[in-house]
Write a structure and sequence with these properties.
Strand content: 15-25%
Bound molecules: 4'-deoxy-4'-aminopyridoxal-5'-phosphate
Number of domains: 2
Distance between the termini: 43 Å
Number of helices: 14
Number of strands: 17
Mean pLDDT: 98
Radius of gyration: 22 Å
Strand order of the largest sheet: 4-10-9-8-7-5-6
CATH superfamily of the largest domain: Type I PLP-dependent aspartate aminotransferase-like (Major domain)
Low-confidence stretches: none
Shape: globular
Largest sheet: 7 strands, mixed
CATH class of the largest domain: Alpha Beta
Structural class: alpha/beta
CATH architecture of the largest domain: 3-Layer(aba) Sandwich
């Protein structure tokens, strides 16, 4: 049972008025709103449990540690990893990728080596690799894309050489909504003995992901995009790989013994978690994952797919509508432009109607260059959006278009 009215009641912000109109929140690709259970878990922990984790013998410290480590198990189960040793808590997708770029770069990248990324990557899956390439004298190779927003898989196969060391690819494009054929991308890379990082920032909130089924070597996602708090995210890595990588940051928690002569590092996953973690956020993230699991990821997927289909159908009837990204497998993200209306004008005027969409390059400037545009307007759906909100968006776009 997917009772949308009941679900919406879990998110207090959705009943806010913006400029005296009901909020229509369609910026879920940037961040999602939080259900009561997530916020209440944070308040409860700060009021009743708070103490630093892992270090204390006292009651509160042990209780906070138990909550933090139980959250790691919740994440493990949610993505079906083999072991909690494979779940590293980070600040988000961006930090997860920076961690990997640093550690993998230190261990495995030498001058002349190559890293494959795709045309549609978010800056956070480009720039850390560029920085690592600069440090190591390595090169980026880029998977090209067709005009409809699908990757050119034949070209991908031709990018491999003896010096390819890693493939990094988004599961779902935050601009085009393309669901990339990551299973094929991973299989092909493994045929060349090359490991793969999947950026799951835009997939985890929308459909079930399974590490053992995907068989990717690394996977990153953010808590705040899946109805959890800001400031926490995850890097999944196969244990064999994580064992071979050096730590990212040094400090407390990540050590076994320290002397001025030599320091030995802690075991997984702590080797990669220097300093006090945001243990309140990890606990709240687990509550968010419990929340979406109770609704059912398959139900969320079906609901959002139906919304996307309905929105595409209704929006395609608007004069001058141009969709950016029409792949055959598309997730709940719709980028568009209307006639010659600048994306910023469209976004600003929709905002006046209480409709929150995102405008601009969406942290994907190379993709914008490939498409020959400066930016788009982007509506992205979450589990609580409704067809009435799609209708409000369509009416809003039509109203703005009439003004031009
Ligand atoms: N990758 C993709 C595909 C994204 O959409 C985003 C966020 N827009 C990120 C990475 C970065 O996530 P965060 O800002 O939470 O680190």
């Amino acid at each position: 049972m997917y009772d949308i009215n009941k679900i919406r009641e879990d998110f207090p912000i959705l009943s806010r008025k913006i400029y005296n109109r009901p909020l229509v929140y369609l910026d879920n690709g940037a961040t999602t709103q939080k259900p009561r259970c997530v916020v209440e878990a944070m308040v409860d922990e700060y009021y009743n449990v708070n103490a630093n984790v892992h270090r204390g013998v006292h009651f509160l410290s042990q209780q906070a540690t138990d909550l933090h480590e139980a959250s790691r198990e919740t994440v493990r189960a949610f993505i079906n990893a083999r072991s909690t040793n494979e779940i590293l808590f980070t600040r988000g997708t961006t930090e997860s990728i920076n961690l990997l770029a640093f550690s993998f770069g230190e261990a495995f990248i030498h001058e002349g080596d190559e890293i494959i990324v795709s045309t549609m990557e978010h800056h956070s899956n480009i720039v850390p690799w560029q920085m690592m390439c600069e440090r190591k004298g390595a090169k980026l190779r880029v998977i090209p894309m067709f005009d409809n927003g699908e990757l050119d898989m034949d070209a991908y196969k031709r990018l491999f050489s003896k010096t390819t060391r890693l493939v990094c690819c988004a599961h779902v494009s935050n601009v085009l909504g393309t669901v990339n054929p990551v299973k094929d991308i991973i299989t092909i890379a493994h045929e060349h003995n090359v490991p793969v990082l999947i950026d799951g920032a835009q997939s985890t909130p929308h459909f079930k992901v399974d590490m053992q089924e995907l068989d990717c070597d690394f996977f990153a996602f953010s808590g705040h995009k899946i109805y959890g708090p800001t400031g926490v995210g995850v890097l999944y890595g196969k244990e064999d790989w994580l064992d071979k990588l050096p730590p990212y940051q040094g400090g407390g928690e990540m050590i076994k013994n320290v002397s001025f002569e030599k320091t030995t590092y802690n075991e997984l996953p702590y080797k990669f978690e220097a300093g006090t973690p945001d243990y309140v956020a990890t606990h709240a993230l687990a509550k968010a994952l419990d929340y979406v699991s109770a609704l059912g990821m398959d139900n969320i997927y079906a609901h959002e797919q139906e919304l996307t289909r309905y929105a595409m159908e209704r929006m395609s009837q608007i004069d001058g509508m141009r969709f950016i990204g029409t792949p055959s497998h598309k997730d709940a993200v719709i980028s568009f432009l209307v006639g010659n209306i600048h994306h910023l004008d469209m976004g600003t005027l929709l905002d006046r109607l209480g409709i929150a969409v995102r405008t601009g390059h969406h942290c994907a400037e190379p993709l914008m260059r490939r498409l020959g545009i400066e930016g788009t307007v982007r509506a992205s759906f979450g589990l609580y959006n409704t067809k009435e909100e799609v209708d409000a968006l369509v009416a809003g776009i039509e109203r703005v278009a009439k003004m031009f």
